[in-house]
Write a structure and sequence with these properties.
2 copies of one chain form a homodimer. Chain A is of the alpha/beta class and 226 residues long. Helices cover 36% and strands 24% of the residues of chain A. Chain A is globular, with a radius of gyration of 16 Å.
């Protein structure tokens, strides 16, 4: 199935668990190693809150980092093989759960902070997460997203929302069948926060010092009780 | 005086009043004509409020548009010749005032909306405006900025705050001595809102349909009473 869809994203990722686990373990992704890993940790620890839900946790590196820093952290991911790997690699609570199945029933606790670190790649699945986020956050909780910087990742294509073909350029040749992703402008991200009652209180642009350009965009949403 | 400074910006603009008035009158700046003029008007009318302060109003086109739409609008600008031109071109309240001299004393009324349409070009002068904005806005007032999109206007230079040389490329050859400007990243703009108690509630990226890229960045700050 080669269509560009949320389902295709999961199919592709399920095929790349093993090289992905290796890439993270060995620090093969330069922008993560020199910029974005530290940036997401600093952002999480800059807001008040102790109980973190890592949505799209993959093999769990961020959950382990947060536990190491003394926070409480739970990871969820749609790919069972990644969750199995996460459980194998350390402590932490993990659960296999597709984004579309997230609800206040399947997520039966509330969190101070929900984080998506380069894990919002789809269309409907992402919209669903924004819809349910307010119901799984504590009052005054935070929703933190790190994603490819829209203006940098746009490339030569028009700056409008839409599905894009994936690529493993720059990754080892063990990777195959790259996942498509749904491009969103900064305005569209901003609208998602606004529409779901989250105040977009801060934007960060971690710089990749090797390129002098933003390595990512971090957005902090605040679930303020009116 | 060729240094890059807030003072030099005013010196340069004072020399270009006549071609600027002509450029605006004749719609010579394509991105304004096809994208950003309409975008700032739509943004102002999308938030609640009637009484608008246009900071850096130039020859007053936006004040006149807002009056035409039934809003109350006052324009301030540091360049006396531009304010004289604004008064000549139509109704509206206008005042010559340098940004650094803005205070709750020199601005003796409060506004529902303060807007800066491509008029935040300096360093200290911009920081001063953010500092005094909360004192000149009514409770729940809005501060709306339209500016060059940082990721587009950055060009090949490193994506970090700093003074940049100006240019009149694309303008008529009646323009001279281009004003320098102080480049700010999206993160830096976001920090200015945050630091001064303004919630950055929405970001917009009006698209230039001829280039397919953002023509500007619009930020809406909300002076929420906690």
């Amino acid at each position: 199935m080669e269509v560009l869809s949320d389902r295709k994203i999961l199919d592709s990722w399920a095929k790349n668990v093993s090289p992905w686990v290796k890439a993270i373990k060995n620090g093969q992704i330069e922008s993560r190693r020199i910029a974005t890993d530290q940036a997401i940790i600093e952002t999480i620890t800059s807001v008040s809150g102790n109980k973190v839900l890592d949505i799209g946790c993959g093999e769990g590196w961020l959950v382990r980092e947060l536990l190491f820093l003394g926070l409480s952290a739970t990871g969820i991911d749609a790919i069972e093989a990644l969750i199995n790997k996460a459980k194998e690699l350390g402590d932490g609570l993990y659960k296999v759960l597709e984004y579309e199945k997230m609800s206040s029933r399947t997520i039966d606790e509330k969190y101070d902070i929900a984080v998506c670190n380069f894990s919002l790649l789809g269309k409907e699945s992402v919209e669903h997460i924004f819809k349910i986020i307010p119901s799984i956050l504590n009052d005054n909780g935070y929703f933190i997203i790190q994603t490819l910087h829209p203006n940098v990742s746009c490339g030569e294509l028009p700056y409008i929302d839409g599905w894009r073909e994936g690529s493993w350029t720059g990754f080892s040749n063990e990777f195959s069948d790259p996942a498509p992703w749904y491009f969103r402008t900064i305005e569209s991200w901003s609208n998602l926060f606004h529409k779901h009652g989250l105040k977009l209180i801060q934007l960060k642009e971690p710089i990749n010092l090797n390129t002098g350009k933003p390595a990512s965009l971090i957005m902090i949403g605040h679930a303020v009780i009116q």
